[in-house]
Amino acid sequence: MLRRVNNSVLELIEGDITEMATDAIVNAANSHLKHGGGVAGAIVRKGSRIIQDESDKIGYCAVGEAVITGAGRLKARHVIHTVGPRMGEGNEDEKLKNATVNSLKLADREGLESITFPAISAGIFGFPIDRCAEIMLENIIEYLSGTTGLKRVVFCLFGRDSFDVFQKELQKQL
Ligand code: AR6
């Protein structure tokens, strides 16, 4: 599914984010940047230990913030690590918005043209997927309506159920 927003394209696909060849893929990380399970584990396993080593040099990323490393052997050139909220810690919606927007801003600062997101916080961190879709899409659409060098923003969703939720939400919003 594909929608044009201003001068950019917003796209939803179902698949494995580690296979994406956009300039950057976004990792749903934790604050200590210890990439064990979920998307994070898959990125390090396929991309190589270099991504974990570079993350260890950075050391920490607050909830809602984003940092960048190389992507090792992955097809993407960079990994943007952002930390979404853990369900129950409070102020989750605002934190998910910040994680999304700060990833986009970091990509722009680095001069990147394409980026792929997973459904941040919707796995191990327990955030409801429908609310995740609503908040992330809303804020990406708003961001792309302003000035940006990003030409292509993709969501790579794991499994048909997640894809369907995002598809329904995007149809509602655009
Ligand atoms: N490609 C695309 N999406 C995926 C993939 C994949 N290969 N694998 C999982 N997902 P999660 P979180 C989906 O748990 O909730 C890690 O241990 C998954 O189905 O990766 O933000 C970190 O180190 C879900 O919809 O991230 C943190 O400690 C979404 O990606 C913690 O998990 C996010 O699931 C972060 O938890």
Task: Explain what the structure shows.
With 174 residues, the protein is α/β, with parallel strands linked by helices. It is built from five helices and seven strands; from the N terminus they run E-E-E-H-H-E-E-H-E-H-E-H. It has helices at 38-47, 50-58, 92-109, 129-144, 160-173, and strands at residues 2-5, 8-14, 24-29, 66-70, 78-83, 114-117, 152-157. The chain is globular and about 40 Å long.
Outline of the structure:
By secondary structure, the protein is of the alpha/beta class. It has helices spanning 38-47, 50-58, 92-109, 129-144, 160-173; strands at 2-5, 8-14, 24-29, 66-70, 78-83, 114-117, 152-157. It has a seven-stranded mixed beta sheet, with helices on both faces.
Blueprint (SSEs and pairs):
Elements: E1 2-5, E2 8-14, E3 24-29, H1 38-47, H2 50-58, E4 66-70, E5 78-83, H3 92-109, E6 114-117, H4 129-144, E7 152-157, H5 160-173
This protein binds ligand AR6.
Ligand AR6 binds at residues 16-18, 28-30, 35-40, 42, 84, 118-125, 156, 158, 162.
Comma- or semicolon-separated keywords:
174 residues; alpha/beta; seven-stranded mixed beta sheet; 39% helix; globular; binds ligand AR6
Give the SSE string: EEEHHEEHEHEH
Largest sheet: 7 strands, mixed
Small-molecule binders here are: ligand AR6
What low-confidence regions span 5 or more consecutive residues with pLDDT below 50?
none
Fraction of helical residues: 25-40%
Coarse shape: globular
Total of DSSP H or I helical runs spanning 4+ residues: 5
The count of strands amounts to 7
- Mean pLDDT equals 98
Query: How much of the residues is beta strand, in percent?
Result: 15-25%
- Placed side by side, the strands forming the largest sheet appear as 1-2-7-6-3-5-4
**Alpha-beta classification:** alpha/beta
